[in-house]
Every structure is written in structure tokens, then in C-alpha cells.
Design goal:
Largest sheet: 8 strands, parallel
Distance between the termini: 52 Å
Catalytic activity: AMP + H2O = D-ribose 5-phosphate + adenine
Number of strands: 8
GO molecular function, one term: AMP nucleosidase activity
Keywords: Signal
InterPro entries: LOG_fam, LOG_family_nucleotidases
Structural class: alpha/beta
CATH architecture: 3-Layer(aba) Sandwich
Number of helices: 9
Helix content: 40-55%
CATH topology: Rossmann fold
GO cellular component, one term: cytosol
Length: 278
């Protein structure tokens, strides 16, 4: 017996099937695959190839990075991540390291199975967050790219491109991007909440990119917390924001979503309320 669907239902079924499948590339080629090499990097769920400077990354490789990151999130952690941005150069003896590690551990014990901690998978405060999450027994996610030091650096290929050196030792689920721009964009798009720890120019790039995308309504609003001693780490940021307000280049209410946190337990409780996970 052949079952025939009414025309309307058949059309709907075709539409659903088309939406479920990844779209083809603009040139009609099939969607990119998501390579990995678990024998070499057992904690990597995706490994994009090293292409050198960002100028050399092609559109298809950029699209592959985003496609594979979206596929990973949808399959493993669809609720997104508590993303931690912070310096790679702040070490274990700094109070910020202990704060980030404790926040990550406490959050992971409570909600890490559903909304894991994610970082850029490097050393310093990224390591602190991944370490806290792993020590708490939950997933510890890292989105990174290539920063390994080659023996003979080339100006056009300043890194060695060795994926075995891309993830810190506390990451349980890692993605290694070809494009640093795609990596940063994926981190922002996949965040359910963002914790910005003390850092340098890289962390400020991430912070201001996040602020601008939320302020200009290019990104769904998420909770954003600035971690650590407010007077020590964030006074200069407050001065810059106040200056922008005084010159009329931003309005104070546009950045009112930024909040400060220096107590791990209070922050975890507030995040639970923000994400409605109590």
C-alpha cells in the first residue's frame, strides 16, 4: 500500500527536510565537512587547517569554521555556554586566577552539563576557567586557533600550525579554527552569558566587540559581568566609557548592562537567576 500525503503536507515535509539539512555553498558545492584527528588531539571535536595570516583565510574556510562550530553547539550544547574571556598572561599566583577557577568550578557543579564553561583554550585565565570546569567533573569547552611557536617563523605564517599545541590541558571539548575572526564571532554567538576577566588588548577587543554588537542590536542581549577587583582592573574602562558619554559618542544607558563581580558565590547565584536555572 502506498501512502500519499496531501499536497500541502508533502510540501511542508519537503520544506522541513530542506531546513534540517545544512545549506550548500554559494557556488553549489556541498557543505563543508568538519575534520578532526582524534588520534593526534583526542580532546578536539573540530580541527581547521592552519592557513597563516588572517588575510590568507578564504571564504570557504571561514564558512567551514562557522558551520562546524554551529554544528558542534547544536549537537552537544544547544543551550550555549558561559563564556570566559581573560588574559593568557595572568598566572596562578594572581587573585584573578583563583576567582575565575572557583566561579568555573561552582558553575560547572551546578549547571555545567547543560550550560558549560567555554574559553579561548589558552593559558592564564582561560586555563583557570577550563581547569575549574574540569576539576568539577563537567565539560570544559575551548574555541581556539593556532598560537604555537614555530622553529623558523615565516612572516606570512607566523605559527607552526600544530593542532596538538592549540588547546590547554584542561579542555575536554575543543574546536581549533582556521580563522581567528570566525573563532571570536562563534564565541560571541554561542554565549548564553559572558564573564570578562582582567586582560590585555585581546580581551578588550572581545569586550568592545561584545558591547558594540549588543548596543547596536546585532546580537541578542546576554548577561555580561566584569570580574575581579573593580578599582584595580576596571577603573580605566570606566574612565573611557565616562569620556564617551561626556562627548556624546555613546549614551550611558547603552552600556548599563555591564555589571561587576568579585565574589564567586554571589556571581553564580546571579547567573542562575539571569539564565533562569535556579
Amino acid at each position: 500500500m502506498t501512502l500519499r500525503l496531501p499536497a500541502a503536507l508533502a510540501g511542508a515535509a519537503l520544506l522541513l527536510a530542506a531546513c534540517a539539512a545544512p545549506p550548500p555553498a554559494a557556488d553549489g558545492a556541498p557543505p563543508p565537512d568538519c575534520p578532526t584527528a582524534r588520534a593526534e588531539v583526542p580532546n578536539a571535536d573540530y580541527i581547521g587547517r592552519y592557513a597563516g595570516l588572517e588575510n590568507a583565510v578564504g571564504a570557504r574556510e571561514f564558512a567551514q569554521d562557522l558551520h562546524c562550530a554551529d554544528r558542534f553547539k547544536a549537537a552537544r550544547f544547544p543551550a550555549g555556554f558561559v563564556t570566559v574571556f581573560g588574559s593568557s598572561r595572568i598566572r596562578e599566583d594572581d587573585p584573578a586566577y583563583a576567582l575565575v577557577r572557583r566561579v568555573a568550578a561552582e558553575w560547572t557543579r551546578r549547571h555545567g552539563a547543560r550550560v558549560p564553561v567555554m574559553t579561548g583554550a589558552g593559558p592564564g585565565l582561560m586555563e583557570a576557567a577550563n581547569r575549574g570546569a574540569r576539576e568539577a567533573g563537567g565539560p570544559s569547552v575551548g574555541y581556539t586557533t593556532y598560537y604555537d611557536r614555530p622553529t623558523a617563523p615565516d612572516p606570512l605564517r607566523p605559527y607552526g600550525g600544530d593542532p596538538r599545541q592549540a588547546l590547554n590541558g584542561h579542555v575536554t571539548h575543543g574546536l581549533i579554527f582556521t580563522s581567528v575572526t570566525a573563532r571570536e564571532l562563534a564565541m560571541l554567538r554561542h554565549s548564553a552569558a559572558v564573564l570578562v576577566a582582567p586582560g590585555g588588548t585581546g580581551t578588550e577587543w572581545e569586550l568592545f566587540q561584545l558591547v558594540e554588537m549588543i548596543k547596536s542590536r546585532q546580537l541578542a542581549p546576554v548577561p555580561v559581568y566584569l570580574l575581579g577587583d573593580r578599582a584595580r582592573h576596571w577603573a580605566s574602562l570606566q574612565v573611557r566609557l565616562d569620556d564617551m558619554v561626556s562627548r556624546g559618542t555613546i549614551r550611558r544607558e547603552e552600556v548599563a548592562f555591564l555589571r561587576f563581580a568579585d565574589d564567586a558565590d554571589a556571581l553564580v547565584r546571579q547567573l542562575e537567576a539571569d539564565l533562569r536555572l535556579r
